[in-house]
Prior knowledge:
Distance between the termini: 34 Å
Amino acid sequence: MADFPPCDDVCGALEEHARRFFAGRQVDPFTWAAGPILTQNPHFRALRIAPAVTTDVWTSVSIGGWAATGGDHRGTEFVICTPSENARAVELLAMTVFYNRGGKLGIGHTLPIGEP
């Protein structure tokens, strides 16, 4: 298991919820050391969830994204689905959580990542 900084009850509850929702599937925690995400939000991590069957998608879920808007008494987590196991999904979640600080993103919003 990865060694993450201490997290509060919110992160623990979110991770427990994701693990219950994806019960029976392999769930692995990751973080992203590159860039400013861990300085800005030390709670950030991602869970990578293996598909239930080989023809299904891999699901990556942010944990700790809520901290970017915690002062607003609301929080947002993000989900990315990919056709294969891919570390890029964790990087994209880190970028999204970092960009969302201050609550910039809502349903249907997009963000510039500087590439196609």
